[in-house]
Amino acid sequence: MPIFPELKQAFIQRVEQNFRPGHRGGIVQFIVGEQPEGRFHATLTDNVRFSDGTHRAPDASIEMSEDMFQGLVEHPEQPLRCGAKMSGDQALLSLIALAAHGEGATGPARLRTIDSRAQNWLRLDPPICRRPSINSSGLLWALHFSVPLVLTSMLGEGGWRMTIERLFEQYGQLPLVGLDADVLGASLDLSTLGALIRDALHGGEALVYSGGCALPGPMCEAFTLPLLKPTCFSRPQLWMGRRDEAACTRLHRDFLHAFIGQVSGVKTFMIAPPEEAQYLYPGACFNMFQLARFDPFQPDFIRFPLAQQAKFLTITLHPGELLVLPAGWFHTVRSNGLVMSINRFMREEAWASFSGRIEAAPADVALQWIEQLS
Which regions span the lipid bilayer (predicted)? Predict the structure, then answer.
């Protein structure tokens, strides 16, 4: 068995390399086994710093055996939450767990696939295709050419046209589950959709956000997407709340095609194509997404000088509009007042089937769609 100091140093190096800050900082205490050297703590701010010993008043704690700690170091795909006793501030614990997890087993492969598709990117002027509608073939060709779409008249009545008051009356009692503690912007003290709406409307200066938690099951049928069968999409996520003048979602890129429908309020997206990655300081790629450290809404060119070369595009998404964002595009989101969006991802197996047909299409068909998208 490797000696404990070596395991500890390897663990610390991985967390420091992968760490991405959340919306607040604090102290996380580690207790590994019975030895004094197994007591150390992490200070989380805009980076992470480790110190030996026991902190007097940590915000959260993580306890595990030495055997489990060794397994975690030697098998980074093993989630920290499996077997460790974790208590205290869940937002801080999630940030540590995400950094400790290391790169996902399938994330790097997905990233390589995205990079290989970059040659298909159709550089339009303007680069974002904004139009009332499109048919299913046009949608698939746009995804093939990595062209973002804003479709202004494609979302039907159903839930997409509901007011916040109607949503509160009809669905306010439904519980919220799957809040992803502060990694992309979630608040953790929410219980129901009604509580979220109340806090967002009447919570004073407090900021509250669902951060992409699962849309409650009874709401799913009211928020279906057009053009493709429901089985082509993942379960919907809810992005709802209020983060005035703060990023609702930190800069990151997803490895699947995203479909984001706006229900209420207005959101501003800043997006950048995959080829801009070299300027955006991306971190480790996890199974489904990759975070970046640079914030285009609050640019810090002293810490991130290469970001001065990054080229961002701005999208304003209004109620009733659908943003289709191809896999690999970086994006961060800001809003004012209460907002509500719902997104789904296209399933990998669905896109594999569609893309196979597209790549087999004659060249003249591709040229026709290039003209139509332009």
Answer: none
Tokens 């008051």 found at: 165
| Biggest alpha carbon–alpha carbon distance for the chain | 70
Contact present, 114 and 274 (Cβ < 8 Å) = yes
How far apart, in Å, do the first and last CA atoms of the chain sit?
61
Q: Is 332 helix (H, G, I), strand (E, B) or coil?
A: strand
Q: Residue 98 corresponds to which tokens in the numbers above?
A: 């995400």
The residue type at 200 = A
Domain that holds residue 81: 4-101
Q: Phi and psi (nearest 5°) for 179?
A: -65, 125
Query: Quick one: average pLDDT of 166-192?
Result: 71
The secondary structure of 17-84, three-state, reads HHCCCCCCCEEEEEEECCCHHHEEEEEECCCEEEEECCCCCCCEEEEECHHHHHHHHHCCCCCCCCCC
Give the per-residue pLDDT at 54: 95
Mean of all residue pLDDT scores within the chain: 85
User: Is residue 252 one of the residues assigned to a domain?
Assistant: yes
- Phi first, then psi: what are they for 217, rounded to 5°? -50, -50
Residue 197 in contact with residue 172, Cβ under 8 Å?
yes
Per DSSP, helices labelled H in the chain are 4-18, 66-74, 90-101, 107-117, 136-144, 164-171, 193-202, 348-359, 363-373
Q: Quote the pLDDT of residue 173.
A: 93
| Residue 19 amino acid letter | F
Q: Are residues 83 and 134 in the same domain?
A: no
Residue 33's domain is classified under what CATH number?
A: 3.30.1050.10
Give me the pLDDT at residue 253, please: 92
**DSSP-H helix ranges across 172-280:** 193-202
Count other C-beta atoms under 10 Å from residue 313's C-beta: 15
* pTM higher than 0.85: no
Over the stretch 306-323, which tens digit does the pLDDT of each residue have? 999 999 999 999 999 999
Backbone angles phi, psi at 277, to 5 degrees: -55, -35
Cα 371 to Cα 126, 139, 297, 299, 364, distances in angstroms? 14, 14, 34, 36, 11
> Both 113 and 86 in a single domain?
no
Strands 237-242 and 208-209, by their bridges, are antiparallel
